[in-house]
Amino acid sequence: RYWPSVFCVEAADLKTQLALGNGPNYLLVDCRTIEERKVSTLSAPGALVIASDELRRRAADYVNAYGTIITFCTIGGRSGMFCKRFVDELIDFGHFPAERSDELR
């Protein structure tokens, strides 16, 4: 919604995909603070849910292992900003082919 390179997935659509058993294809990245994560978290049957710090630490492993990485927060602003920065970093470090860089920025 905020950046062209960040594809928005609606919660209802994700819920449908998880119900269809597609969870193993998804990595969910929680961009909220530690305090917020202590209060609540998502239940995503079959999908792995990690913190944004974990994604940064093991970016190559996760990017290569999952077909879709979905970032989330409370409203969407922080997760959108995190996703935009993360995609830019992947492009800058050569993790995407040069011919695809323009479509992701």
Short description:
The protein is of the alpha/beta class and 105 residues long.
Task: Provide the fold topology.
Blueprint: H1 11-19, E1 26-30, H2 34-39, E2 48-51, H3 52-57, H4 59-65, E3 68-72, H5 77-92, H6 98-104
Parallel strand pairs: 1-2, 1-3
Task: For the structure shown, list the relevant keywords.
105 residues; 3-stranded parallel β-sheet; 3 strands; alpha/beta
Tell me about this structure.
With 105 residues, this protein is an alpha/beta fold. The protein is built from six helices and three strands, in the order αβαβααβαα. The chain has helices spanning 11-19, 34-39, 52-57, 59-65, 77-92, 98-104, and strands at residues 26-30, 48-51, 68-72. The chain has a three-stranded parallel sheet with strand order 2-1-3. Strand 1, helix 2 (34-39) and strand 2 form a beta-alpha-beta unit. The two termini are 14 Å apart.
Radius of gyration: 14 Å
Please provide the count of β strands. 3
- Kindly state the percentage of residues in helix: 40-55%
Average pLDDT metric: 82
The number of helical elements comes to 6
Reported for the largest beta sheet, the result is: 3 strands, parallel
**Strand percentage, roughly?**
5-15%
**What sort of overall outline do the alpha carbons produce when their principal axes are compared?**
globular
Which consecutive residue ranges, at least 5 long each, have pLDDT under 50? none
- Secondary-structure-derived class: alpha/beta
Straight-line N-to-C gap: 14 Å
| Spatial order of strands in the largest sheet | 2-1-3
Along the chain, the helix and strand elements come as: HEHEHHEHH
